[in-house]
Amino acid sequence: xxxxxxxxxxxxxxxxxxxxxxxxxxxxxxxxxxxxxxxxxxxxxxxxxxxxxxxxxxxxxxxxxxxxxxxxxxxxxxxxxxxxxxxxxxxxxxxxxxxxxxxxxxxxxxxxxxxxxxxxxxxxxxxxxxxxxxxxxxxxxxxxxxxxxxxxxxxxxxxxxxxxxxxxxxxxxxxxxxxxxxxxxxxxxxxxxxxxxxxxxxxxxxxxxxxxxxxxxxxxxxxxxxxxxxxxxxxxxxx
Length: 239
Prior knowledge:
By secondary structure, this protein is of the alpha+beta class. The protein contains nine helices and five strands, in the order βααββαβααβαααα. It is globular, with a radius of gyration of 32 Å.
């Protein structure tokens, strides 16, 4: 059996090209790079806007190839599912999205095999953890609260049925929840800025007396006998 070479890369779904990392890696293999790229783009078209892991297996003798497509990282799937452009820089306090349990189930089902999760419920909890690190709420809850809700059976029916479609009215409710949370965060930021500004104004006032005294001290003449006393003190220290 001919030995197969393996080329692995992370590509943009549906937009792979002969540029690095694929082109330089495939060049020495003697395969038709254009055909490989076209096949990769065909197989990853459904993952447009996401990074997708691909593996190209090449027969060294015949130059025939096969392509294996992995699933994008969980974070990428979450961002795609809720149309999130940028993750939060402060995920614990700044929330950028709010996903439904159905959306979490959908992502969990896509990643369950690669997660090696023992159950869909376990996979959903992993997705919730990933969402939390992006600054994304689940049903209006942070990661810990949402995982607790899953454990307590709040979403048992949805998970058992594998429900992945979110009702429009729920999407509207989730949007309202997120807007309220973001509004509270903006108020808190304004409050912190006001406190910082007030503290900055106070510092010069506290130091005014010291600043006025310093020039006077700098310009003061030494007291009579001060120079003469210094050597005496130095001698006393040597004895």
